[in-house]
Specification:
The protein is an alpha/beta fold. The chain is built from eleven helices and eight strands. Helix content is 48%, strand content 14%. Bound molecules: nicotinamide-adenine-dinucleotide.
């Protein structure tokens, strides 16, 4: 199956990065969002990111304009009749995603593969609302997408081998490395990462060390490029809390219970980088 035209639904942090990566790799990209403001913001951040690549010498200047020319912005989903592949990156809300997958199933040709960038919603539950469950899978990009190499490819019970192969080939074309994960809560990345972040937050709460000390130990002692609390601030403390709840509820296991300090910080609006304060001030 040859993929030439890709639709990315949702033009937020992830959708804009995903659209940029596909356009940079030569695909024709339709970026769709309900909000014209988000589309305009996405265009601005893509231009800024491409300019940085040109300044660093990793992208020829002519490629910047060519990449932007391959990208179009849409507020309605009407024109998806010729797309080969869709990546959904709207809000992390199971009902909103299921409604969108129903709509995508009606608007795209039956051959089109539908991928979700969800961090936590079971892919099988999205596949089940479509008439093509074998062509639905998870494609979990990492933030910031243009810089991060990993993509987790999530195989739902219904996903076919042919669909998995298309996704793996696409990742290669994007210059990324795909790793397969089963459709279990948190997949691989968040299943392993979030308990570590939660434990680091417990260590702050119990005054085992300051945030700086905990991050230094993990950076210098474990060779992590970024400490867990810096990373939590970057991801967003509200997002960390939501993922921990998904793990706790999905496995029905108290070991994933979010640290009370994390609950308090989110309630106080300390969400990390995006709100100006988390474990650090920005
Ligand atoms: N932020 C991260 O670090 C990260 C990492 C991996 C995966 N994810 C996942 O990616 C998805 C998007 O996350 P984000 O951080 O980019 O969110 P975001 O809030 O930045 O963007 C979501 C966008 O979706 C749009 N939207 C909402 N409903 C829509 C609809 N029905 N149709 C079209 N557009 C719609 C919103 O207007 C918004 O622009 C989520 O599922 C999230 O769990 C996020």
């Amino acid at each position: 199956m040859t993929i030439t035209t890709v639709a990315v639904i949702g033009a937020g942090t992830m959708g804009s990065g995903i659209a940029q990566s596909f356009a940079q790799a030569g695909f024709t990209v339709r970026l769709v969002d309900v909000s014209p403001q988000m589309l305009a913001r996405a265009r601005g951040s893509i231009e800024k990111s491409l300019t940085k690549f040109v300044e660093k010498g990793t992208l020829p200047a002519a490629e910047k304009d060519a990449t932007l020319a391959r990208l179009s912005a849409h507020t309605v989903m009407s024109d998806l009749s010729d797309v080969d592949y869709v990546v959904e990156a709207i809000v992390e809300d199971a009902e909103a995603k299921r409604a969108l997958f129903r709509e995508l199933d009606a608007l795209t040709p039956p051959r089109t593969i539908l991928a979700s960038n969800t961090s936590s919603i079971p892919i099988a539950s999205l596949a089940a609302v479509t008439g093509r469950p074998d062509r639905v899978l998870g494609m979990h990009f990492m933030n910031p997408v243009p810089l991060m190499v990993l993509v987790e490819i999530i195989r739902a019970a219904q996903t076919s081998d042919a669909t998995m192969k298309v996704a793996f080939d696409l990742c290669k074309a994007l210059g990324k490395v795909a790793v397969e994960s089963a459709d279990r809560p948190g997949f691989i990345a968040n299943r392993v990462l979030m308990p570590m972040i939660n434990e680091a937050i417990y260590a702050v709460d119990e005054r085992v060390g300051t945030p700086e000390a905990i991050d230094q130990v993990m950076k210098l002692g474990m060779n992590h490029p970024m400490g867990p609390l810096t990373l939590a601030d970057f991801i967003g403390l509200d997002v960390c809390l939501a993922i921990l709840r998904v793990l706790r509820d999905g496995f029905n296991d108290a070991k994933y219970t979010p640290c009370p300090l994390l609950e308090r910080m989110v309630a106080e609006g300390k969400l990390g980088r995006k709100s100006g304060e988390g474990f650090y001030k920005y």
